[in-house]
Amino acid sequence: MNDKVLTLIVDDQRLMRLSVRRILQQDKLFVLHDCSSIKDALSFLQKNYVELLIIDVYFPESNGLDLLSYIRQRKISFDIPVIVLSGENNRNDILMALDLGATEYIVKPFEGNKFYSKICHVVEQFRNPSQITQTLRHAQKAFLLENYEESARLFSTLCELAPGNLRFNTDMAITSHKLGQTNRSIAMLEAILIQDPTFFYAHASLADIYLELHDTEKAISYLEKELEYNGKRVHRRYILAKAYTELGAFEKAIEHMHKAISHAGLSAETFLISMADIQQKAGHWDMALHYYLKARRYSPTCQQALDGIIETTERYGQPKQAIHHLSSLLPYKKGAYQVLLARSKVYKRLGDTSLALDDINSAIRFAPHLKEAYIQKIHFLNSQGSKSEAEHHKKEVLRLFPDSADEIHVALSKAS
User: Fold this and answer.
1) Which strands make up the sheet holding 5-10, listed edge to edge?
2) What is the pLDDT of residues 150-165, one digit of tens each?
3) Cis amide linkage into residue 109, ω under 30° from 0
4) Domains along the sequence of the chain with CATH
């Protein structure tokens, strides 16, 4: 092994991330990146060709096995080694991790030398596969890096080596589409489905192409077939719900979003917000509020949920209800300053300027290190005609946050 191995370490415990780093840094083979949340890890994986994933099971608001499931279900780089770490020697967790495709399940604490040897062995096995597997990985990497011509050349080689392999032919079709050969791509995928109508990967690929072409009805037909043959792909059901929403078929959208939410995993926040949006578009104001509130309780820093609560109550003609619903979220201390700032805006619209200013000041006390509340106070004071007080506060904010001049200027211009 001589090429660098981009390795992603995902654990909410900083000391554990540092411990894994120390063990692997003894060898210049590993290029290390770490994340403290599943959300950040997902974002990194979507943009980088990672060859080794080391992930904890338990996170405050999610489960590491959801990320493992995501890896094994994606179209490319689905076979990278995934080492699952856990402080629990729990038989059910071990069986579930292995069933989802974990390469190894390691219980904390572990002995450093043994851990290092196991990691090296796993990487060695991954990097010395058959010639076909090596070519497939090169093709996938080229695709991920958007080098579609090279990817097409390699997939073409794979199709020649294994002409009956539906996966290789589907990947070739997807790459052709990326090269602008959409009609050829569609014809190839339809031919694959004649060979095997149950091959959900081809249905999924056709659905994606028609979504790009804004042919929503055709995309829906292929999404429905894809999920008929593989109903566990939760994110695809979410996409189907969004497609039905685009057509105004709200009841079908709600039906599929319900199913997606029931197995949401790491996407729960996104799914709950989307369900609320669908309910709002369908005119179900009470249900929209229910899901915005649920999203905020699930993720106590979700700003979209707060904006949705305010928008829904205003559109429903009940702006004072926003005060009640926002107040019900204040016991959740995490993100309380966001709730207070949101409620202050509602108080201001209702003409309760004293209560609005009280909430802004409370937000500053909750989060004295964040400048958002300070900026909002400048905007508020200026909009109320308290120019001298706004100017005095501006100087204090610039002292605390020297880089905030542009944001203060925007706040003052909006208030004038």
Assistant:
1) 30-35, 5-10, 52-56, 82-86, 104-107
2) 999 999 999 999 988 9
3) yes
4) 5-128 (3.40.50.2300), 131-205 (1.25.40.10), 343-416 (1.25.40)
